[in-house]
Design brief:
14 helices, binds manganese (II) ion, binds ligand BES, 2 domains, alpha/beta, Leucine Aminopeptidase, subunit E, domain 1, four-stranded mixed β-sheet, 34% helix, binds zinc ion, Aminopeptidase, nine-stranded mixed β-sheet, 21 strands, 21% strand
């Protein structure tokens, strides 16, 4: 999808389609009224006849409106003006995409200033529209044989704005395009099956990403190197797998070498069978998505690199499968993590924290200004929060608050759970420094408690994305979240 800016007047539009918003009841937007005049009241008459109420998402495509040079006018309903909000706006944009997909129009003009959205400026409206359309344009067709189907629908959207808003609008489009590109990468990696998307595959994709991007550098550690670093916890997860584990580091250097980097650590379990603590069979295929944290790290670095942001960011991705096997880790096994702390593995299905703890210790080597880990860590987060927000916990109030704000800013929401000390007791082990599970209660929090024991040296936040990284059911697939949130956070750090 291509986005451009234009400064033309509505009555002189001449392309394939002009999008005019109508709010309830039957009220034309400012641009709509001007177009109506040019068409000698054609639109107003049509509203009066009751053909377009203006309900949210309602659309009416009008070919060859008299008096207008444009080929079509698409009327789209926005609901009551007083009820316009972010979700309604998203629905409006999506219904534009749906209506145009069923038409012959490949390009269209849109007037973002016509929609009043409380607390959101023009740049937000443009960025959000571009992001929504970019996302709805995504297809995953790599695994189908034969030629990919030709895309119908909108290919180019012009935002019609005042000249004085051009600079803001331009960066809104650039940000949306970069975030879209990052989300597409994350979604592709997530959607690929585990027989293709192995740890080595992710490592190759990271290398690919860095090719041609001067500020990106990739380093891949193999199991021997991880052994030398004493990553006994991470290696206990890969022990049962024929696919070798990889520890992938992607460094983006956009600022002076002495500037401390933001470090992103993403869980990269390319398939989670549960190991010897084998998962039940139902929907186990969805455990190919257990590397979506890793995918979001690659996606975010792609966005940062496309925007050439003046900041340092490091991505750390521990990538492995979790498989049952003769050499697999068994419940009751005790391992020593890179930090020196010992772990009694009571459930091999709590593997995410086992790879993250060593990656988090490793992250300390970069002298980070903060570390954010992203992981499809617990089913319990879905019980607690559903699939709307990701869960967030951490050891630094300002960092958590900043992240929550970023989530609201870009509509990729997160919600905090309490990481209180009291919960730490649930991880007690009789025989080791800690157990890797904390019992049935508060599973998302005890998982974060486990991680907190490896993040004492820096500001840290943990995102549990088990409920938000992919969708199940009819539209099963990776969502690309939380690439928007992470990119927004980095953008805000740049502006600071
Ligand atoms: N990858 C899963 C978490 C998960 C489960 C995400 C279902 C999305 C849907 C993780 O490795 C896991 O298995 N967690 C266990 C932890 C438990 C053994 C303490 C879980 O959530 O059941
Ligand atoms: Mn698991
Ligand atoms: Zn897992």
């Amino acid at each position: 999808m291509e986005f451009i800016l234009k400064h033309t007047t509505p009555e002189t539009a001449r392309g394939a389609c002009q999008i005019i918003t109508v709010s309830q009841p039957r009220k034309l937007s400012a641009s709509g009224s001007r177009v109506d005049k040019a068409s000698k009241g054609f639109l107003a008459a049509l509203l009066k006849r009751g053909d377009m109420e203006g309900k949210t998402g309602q659309t009416l495509l009008l070919p060859a409106v008299p008096g207008l040079a444009v080929q079509r006018v698409l009327l789209v309903g926005c609901g009551k003006e007083s009820e316009m909000n972010e979700r309604v706006y998203t629905r409006v944009i999506n219904s534009i995409a749906t209506a145009l997909a069923a038409s012959g129009a490949r390009d269209a003009e849109f007037y973002p200033s016509d929609i009043r959205l409380k607390g959101r400026d023009l740049a937000w409206k443009i960025r959000h529209a571009a992001l929504t359309l970019g996302n709805s344009d995504y297809r995953f067709e790599q695994m189908k044989s034969g030629k990919p189907e030709k895309h119908k629908g909108l290919q180019k959207l012009a935002f019609i704005i005042a000249r004085s808003d051009a600079a803001k609008a331009r960066s809104a489009i650039d940000e949306a395009s970069a975030i879209s590109a990052g989300m597409s990468l994350a979604r592709d990696l997530g959607n690929l099956p585990a027989n293709v998307c192995t740890p080595s595959y992710i490592a190759r994709q990271a290398t690919q990403l860095a090719k041609g991007a001067k500020k990106l550098q990739v380093k891949v550690l193999d199991e021997a190197a991880m052994k030398r670093l004493k990553m006994g916890s991470l290696l206990s997860v890969s022990a049962g797998s024929r696919q070798p584990a990889k520890l992938i580091t992607i460094e983006y250097r956009g600022a002076a070498a002495k500037q401390q980097p933001i470090v992103l650590v993403g869980k990269g379990v390319t398939f989670d069978t549960g190991g010897i603590s084998l998962k039940p069979g139902a929907a186990m295929d969805e455990m190919k998505f257990d590397m979506c944290g890793a995918a979001s790290v690659l996606g975010t670095l792609k966005a940062v690199s496309q925007l050439q942001l003046p900041i340092n960011v490091v991505g750390v991705v521990p990538a492995t499968e979790n498989m049952p096997d003769g050499l697999a880790t068994k419940p009751g096994d005790i391992v020593t993590s890179m930090s020196g702390q010992t772990i009694e593995i009571l459930n091999t299905d709590a593997e995410g924290r086992l790879i993250l703890c060593d990656a988090l210790t490793y992250a300390g080597k970069f002298k980070p200004r903060c570390v954010i880990d992203i992981a499809t860590l617990t089913g319990a987060v879905i019980v607690a929060l559903g699939k709307i927000p990701s869960g967030v916990m951490g050891n630094n109030r300002a960092l958590i608050n900043d992240l929550i704000k970023c989530g609201e800013q870009i509509e990729d929401k997160i919600w905090e759970l309490p990481l209180w000390d009291e919960y730490q007791d649930q991880l007690k082990s009789k025989v080791a420094d800690m157990a890797n599970i904390g019992g049935r209660d508060a599973g998302t929090i005890t998982a974060a408690c486990f991680l907190s024991r490896f993040t004492r040296d820096y500001k840290w936040a943990h995102l549990d994305i088990a409920g938000t990284a992919w969708k199940s059911g009819d539209d099963k697939g990776a969502t690309g979240r939380p690439v928007p949130l992470l990119t927004q956070y980095i953008l805000n750090q740049v502006k600071k």
